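Data availability (excerpt). The following record was deposited with the supplementary files.
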Amino acid sequence: MARRLLIPLIFILFGILLAFGLLEIAVRVTGKTPPAGEPAFFWQDDARFGWFHAPGAEGYYFNPPGEYHAYARVNSAGLIDQDYTLKKPEGVYRILVLGDSFTEGLRVPMDAAFHSILEEKLKAMGKRVEVINGGVAGWGADQELLFYREIGRNYEPDMVLLAFFPGNDIMNNAIALESKNFGQVRKPYFLLEDGRLVLHNQPVGSEAGLGDETETTAPRLQLIPDHPPLAFLLPLLQRSAFYRYFIPRLRVIAPGLALKLAQWGLIEPGQETRIAEQGPDYIPLAYGVYKTPLDEPWREGWRITEALLAELKRDVEEDGAELRVVVIPAQLQVESAVWRHIMQTYPAMQPFDWDVDQPNRMLADILDRQYTPYLDLLPIFRAWDGPTLFFPIDGHWNPRGHRLAGDTLFNWLQKDILTDEN
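Predicted structure:
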């Protein structure tokens, strides 16, 4: 009996090993092997802004699934761009782009980011133009305002183009939300006091703890044992190209299975584990911008945001330049399947009402009141009839998304810029 059972088990084991070996070969031959090691790191602490790029930092930026693998370099002024003279050359039209990680553009080659595409197309029309990338990951409009005052205005831009991402910029602008998200105060911030913006915590650390309204949360569940039973296999598995390709995708499509594998020690705990440890009532903070009606911390975030946009517009116009805004769409707004997946992942969201278009309407109302020209890319991205514009797991734009944004910006700006005599 034992012998009769042993032979089928050997064949099953052989079949599993053969399948795994073929998949390993396929991943390697097709060039889908995710990069090994750690991606380059481009940021450093900064007393003025909280964090900023480290001048001269360079290398390849990638994520564990290997969705992108792009080289970038920080120039001597701390911008992910080529070097520029502070004084604007005679006859050159300058655009300074402010924004967060979408603008920073680390996930695509530097010449494939939307602001580089805009510059390329304007130059092709015969315009002497420089489009300067002032984007920094994680920044909100508060840090962008401070950057403009400290550094950006020195480049003498003719136009400041603010790339506003409603998906997290409102949260970034409100310290009650931002500190809860980070677990601490890591940046300077503004509060509305008697109806006016007042800057706090600059230099960073000068008001330690002030404004940190991190809420006390329930202790996390401990779902991973201290000594998972199969953890001894992990170093061997991590040498496999197929394993490194497959596991990040498994975390997205089957988080429950990924959690089990983490409990056995066959994968490192990841996002699926962190979510499960929060308990069944967990709702990610950032999605609060889509909740209707908004909770009070988010309403305050919008009030601060409106004041910050007004301040930036006033500063830019006092310098003789023009402020324009381009509104960056989120993947969950463009691809309905992503929002459905979010609602399934976080069941505690289901009793509430959500409106993914709400932040765009609210931002449009602010910009209309302030007479600031703007371009909302959301309808353009929704009308796109082609392959995805986003990296599916990472959620930022892929090269197609940057190309569509750059082309659309060119169509919006070309008439005014090409006829400008500066």
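Summary of structural features: The first strand starts at residue 43 and ends at 46.
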